[in-house]
Write a structure and sequence with these properties.
Blueprint (H helix, E strand, L loop, with lengths): L50 E5 L5 E5 L11 E6 L2 E9 L3 H9 L9 E6 L2 H27 L5 E7 L5 E7 L7 H11 L2 E6 L2 H8 L10 H4 L9 H6 L6 H4 L14 H8 L9 E3 L4 E8 L4 E5 L7 E4 H12 L8 H15 L3 H4 L4 H20 L3 H4 L1
Parallel strand pairs: 2-5, 7-8
Antiparallel strand pairs: 1-2, 1-4, 3-4, 3-5, 6-7, 9-10, 10-11, 11-12
């Protein structure tokens, strides 16, 4: 749901499919949950589950009880109870699926930390909410100036003002512990609100701020990923990726979470490959040295020397050859396959007809056609003497 709570604008109603978060694509919401039970009617005499999932700015979600039995729909703005005040959020999920979300987060249904929904928001509540959200950028800029003035080694990444304007939460990242007691005093004098400083990790910071990854899609952490598993450089090595921190790091500055997505597939495929870095196969004509491994195609490329052409071999064939070498037998010569690989290399090095063509060749053809038409017209046009 595109709304002002997630920074995309549009108030309380989505700008896209107008489905209030029930679309199966999940592209309108941060950490969206598809309510596949939303269109089903409850059995006769069955009471609806009264705990509702409410989303606030960014990807922050909390659970509240609908004690007043208010008729709520996904996307409705509600006023929820808070300590010494109230806040405004948006219903992101209701019904039986909330039980699964509670179980996922390890929260009991009778927990004391689950608050109550007070009412639906009115026009005044929305106007005040939007006016407070409009002040956040200016307040964050002033807060950063105070932090720089005190020379604190920390980064203020985001700010969230409570719906009643009595409290403000500053989200920051830091490598070491920060003494911000003086900073809180300055914030209290400047903003006249209750101040709360909340330290988050670099991945949580990227999840809150959002963005576009190198793949061209929205960041996984800000759309669907909730648990951040440890990612190591060994995951890149198993997938034969070059260890380049600039390419392997995400916007959070840590290794990309997507390095773990296909890791199990690569590990299963590597079980078929012979172990060792420098594989050698002894043939009748000489020694073959491994040059390259293609895990998904299950091929290993060999060559007799660094300058000679490479020979692709299946993993099964390589294992059979290595087993023959262990028995003291030499493998027959692979000159035929080497000749085929040379032929393929020549084909790759051949002249590329498409790339040699000019980008403006079609425009040049049109110009030539126009010139020919003009010549024909001039040829059949009457001369000045003949016209008289």
């Amino acid at each position: 749901m595109g709304c002002s709570s997630c920074g995309t604008g549009g108030g309380c109603s989505p700008k896209g499919c107008k489905n209030n978060g029930l679309c199966s694509t999940g592209g309108c919401n941060k950490l969206n949950v598809y309510d596949w039970l939303g269109d089903m009617e409850l059995p006769f005499g069955y009471k609806r589950f009264n705990i509702v999932e409410v989303r606030f700015k960014g990807s922050r979600k909390e659970f509240y009880r609908n004690t007043n039995d208010i008729e709520l729909f996904t996307g409705d703005a509600v006023v929820v109870q808070k300590d010494n005040g109230h806040d405004i959020g948006f219903v992101s999920l209701k019904g039986e699926l909330v039980k699964l979300q509670l179980k996922k987060h390890g929260i009991e249904e009778d927990s004391e930390f689950i608050g109550n929904i007070m009412r639906k928001t009115g026009e005044r509540d929305i106007e005040r909410y939007e006016s407070l959200k409009a002040k956040e950028a200016e307040m964050l800029e002033k807060a950063r100036v105070h932090a720089m003035g005190l020379q604190l080694v920390m980064k203020l990444s985001d700010i969230e003002i409570q719906g009643d304007g009595k409290k403000v939460v500053f989200y920051y990242t830091a490598e070491d512990r920060v003494d911000f007691r003086e900073l809180i005093r300055r914030f209290a004098d400047e903003f006249k609100m209750r101040i709360e400083m909340k330290q988050i990790g670099y991945r949580q910071e990227a999840a809150r701020l959002g963005g576009i990854g190198s793949c061209g899609r929205e960041l996984c952490c800000s759309t669907w990923l909730t648990d951040f598993k440890v990612v190591t450089t060994s995951a890149a090595r198993y997938q034969n990726l070059s260890i380049n921190n600039l390419k392997l790091s995400g916007q959070c500055g840590r290794l990309k979470c997507c390095l773990n997505y296909e890791l199990d597939t690569y590990l299963d495929a590597l079980k078929e490959f012979p172990q060792g870095d420098n594989l050698r196969i002894e043939t009748e004509t000489g020694m073959l040295f491994s040059q390259k491994v293609d895990i998904l195609k299950r091929q290993i490329w060999f060559s007799t020397s660094p300058t000679s052409s490479w020979i692709p071999l299946d993993v099964k064939t390589v294992n059979e050859m290595i087993a023959s070498n262990k028995e003291g037998k030499k493998v027959p010569s692979l000159t035929e396959k080497q000749d085929l690989s040379r032929t393929a290399a020549k084909a790759l090095d051949a002249e590329d007809i498409i790339s040699d063509n000019s980008l403006t060749r079609m425009e040049d053809q049109e110009k030539r056609k126009k010139k020919k038409k003009k010549k024909k017209k001039n040829k059949f046009a009457p001369k000045p003497n003949q016209a008289q």
